[in-house]
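Course assignment 3, question 2. Fill in each field.
Student: A.L.
Task: Predict the tertiary structure for the chain below.
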Amino acid sequence: MIDYIRGPLVEIELSYIVIDHQGLGYQIYCPNPFRFQANVGEAIQIYTYHYVREDVLRLYGFAAKEERILFEKLLNVSGIGPKGALAILASGEPENVIAAIEQEDEAFLVRFPGVGKKTARQMILDLKGKLEELTTNLTSNQEVIERVSTAPSELEEALEALRALGYVEKELKKVRPYLENEELTTDGYIKRALQYMLKS
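Answer field:
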């Protein structure tokens, strides 16, 4: 298994980033690729999970080991695949997901795309009591992203990324008016949109 990849970040797409490691471009799927927007051209280290199925071979990447551990645990829950696990982690607040599982808050969990009541209940049954050790480290690794002046294109990039995660137009139209009043990075728009949707 590839534990991590370190190298210059050369490209960001809607669902993945590309890291150049010794002349090889590694395509790495991330919960929110735009969180690395400020690192384009810089060397970064991404913790990876090598996903292998008969028809799929992919690398998934995370800024912290704890995020990767949570991703792996979510994959073990019946009804959650890689896309669903990424959507959950894309909120940028995995510690809140852990808290919801510990508190058996199904109403919070079903707000994620692809998570219905049955899957939320399964998450609680499978993971409650097994994630508490991750909370402290996740909080300490949380990024602080500065607000910067941005062009409207960054809002559009954020909305496209949310669509790629499985959010539908009805949900995006509901939060767009709030986002248009703010000046954020693409990553900032994504996080703020998810916060609005999880609260609504």
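Instructor remarks: Confidence is low (pLDDT under 50) at residues 140-151. The two ends are 40 Å apart (CA to CA).
Grade: pending
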